[in-house]
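Give me structure tokens for this 325-residue protein.
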Amino acid sequence: MITALALLGYAAGAAWFAPALLAPLTHRGVSVRAGLAAWLAAMASVLASVALAIGLSFRTIAADWPGLTQALCRSVAGSACTPEVYGSVLYQAGVLVLAGSLTLAGALAAWRYGRRVRRSRAQTRSHARAALLVGHAIGGQDRTVMLDDPRPAAYCVAGRPAAIVVTSGALAVLDQSQLKAVLAHESAHLAHGHHTLATVTRGLAAAFPGVPLFTRGAEEVARLTEMAADDSAARTNGRPALVAALIAIATGAAVASGGLPGGAFPDPGMPRGAMAAAARAVPERVERLLRPSSPARSTAVTAALSLALAVLAAAPTALTLFLAG
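Here you go.
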């Protein structure tokens, strides 16, 4: 039982304090892949710890219910917990209520997660089918379509098949090289399964509202996947074209590949569940593309994230083995 309590304590600590460790390392996208891996490892570590704790608790309940109630009582009250206390009907009933409440809370979280994932998948697949049905094919690819909409936007939606959507408003402000960069950005999202990461992390945020690791983690994963797609597009189409395209779509004004206009970055208005070229953290992404980190800083951040990843991945198993031994 001590092991289960320790695992729950670790899970609570990581869920509340891991974001304070990871966010400064990943916010600027210095090492995108390591950042994604660290955030996902933190979430998996917390979930695994809770699952292990629940499994150990149920095993103890089945094997030694009196021992469990005694351990719980003494972990709270210490020597004041006498056989008369933990053997009383009132105390036993309280433990049953606590166990039932925790089970119900877990079931509710699982239901919220499943509902969010199902809704997200249904929305994106429905929008992909509709876009492919009513849109006009562009770019020489069947899955890339143009929709008549004056608002500049470009995004991809997962489906069977998936679709990349560019509005007429975006085509009006992009030149050919910028359009290629935007399409490369969206293709990178689809090729690397970024929509799956978004669906999973948003589902966890919905299942555990108010838990910093999952709420902040979903935001950071979304930011990092955009930066990962930026890197892919920049490698094949160059940074200037991509930067100009991001700003043009965000501001609604045509931009030469060397120009940087001022102004606000309005919401381009794409559906929920879509992954858009210029819908998230545009100023930070532009700054990152224009002023990449030095090799020394990149190496240091990657090393720090790799260490955090190793600790988070090993913590549940190491804690269990240590206490069991």
